[in-house]
Amino acid sequence: MRCRISPDREPRYTNPSMGDDETTIQDKIREIQHHGYCVLRAHFAAGAIAACRDALWPGLLTHLRTPEHKPNRGPHRHYIPMPFEPPCFAPDFFFDAQALDIIRGVMDDRIVADQWGCDVPLRGSGYQVVHVDYQRPLFAEVPDLSLPPYMLVVSFGLEQVTPDRGPIEIAPGTHRIRRNEALRAVESGEIQLRPVTLDIGDVLIRHPWALHRGTPNITDTPRALATVRYVRRWYADDSREVNTIPRVVWESFTPEQKNLMRFPVGD
Ligand SMILES: O=C(O)CCC(=O)C(=O)O
Q: Which residues of 93-109 are buried (b: 16+ CB within 10 A; e: fewer)?
């Protein structure tokens, strides 16, 4: 992780992607507020991701080959709940101090993690329709009510997300605009979709209401993008399947970590 913290300064990141030498957590918070997303380059440990990938891969390939596991996010595009057994699960994926500072800075100190899954477009996948995730408005009678963020998703590739493997594309700033207006601006090209390619260890934090779409994976490597969702504590929505945390893993958490996790716990 390329983050230095000194007592008298805000934590600072080197962020080559922005051409900056150093970027603070406050900068990242502002980026999410303004653009709807930010990327922390080379943030998660490559070893933890390799271990996660290696443990997941055989089961993932079997899952993808099983005929009853139909693509559930469009043609040749799957969402699967991620396991909580280490090393697919690593505490740093959920409890990373800088990521949590950013997420808490955008929302509040009482956030919880409530989803852990993986989006996997395969060869044959196409462009998704430009959309937002978790579309149900908080107040159905005022669907366009402008509200502060109450959820954010944190994603990282289990393989490099190169242009040919179908990176997500995001239309910056569209989480702050009325949905119809934002869709019109993207359609007309006034706001352009930006592909988010990711190296191993890069972490994408995004507001799910920034318009986005999946793009075609034209390779034979499944593009596995693992995602943790964080929500404000009062928000509940079980729209995506999640796995159970094994009791032994649950018991390994500190009280603070338990307080951050809202998942079913098994025996
Ligand atoms: O995985 C991606 O690139 C985007 C997926 C997505 O937005 C969806 O399935 O709703």
A: bbbbebbbbbbbbbbee
Nearest-atom index, ligand 1, CA of 168: 3
The CA distance from 196 to 203, in Å, is 10
Q: Which residues line ligand 1 (CB under 6 A)?
A: 73, 119, 128, 133, 168, 212, 214, 225
Q: Please choose from 115, 161, 168 the residue to mutate so as to test ligand 1's pocket, defined by most ligand atoms within 8 A of CB.
A: 168
CATH code where residue 220 lies: 2.60.120.620
**pLDDT tens figures, 37-74:** 999 999 999 999 999 999 999 999 999 999 889 999 99
Q: Domain count of the chain?
A: 1
Tell whether 40 is covered by a domain: yes
pLDDT tens-digit series, residues 181-226: 999 999 999 999 999 999 999 999 999 999 999 999 999 999 999 9
> Which residues have C-beta within 8 Å of that of residue 116, sequence separation ≥ 6?
81, 82, 84, 89, 94, 226, 227, 228, 229, 242, 243, 263
CA of 125 to the centre of ligand 1 (A): 11
Ligand 1 centroid – CA 93 distance (Å): 19
Q: How far is the CA of 24 from the centre of ligand 1 (A)?
A: 28
Task: Give the range among 13-22, 55-64, 153-162 with minimum mean pLDDT.
Answer: 13-22
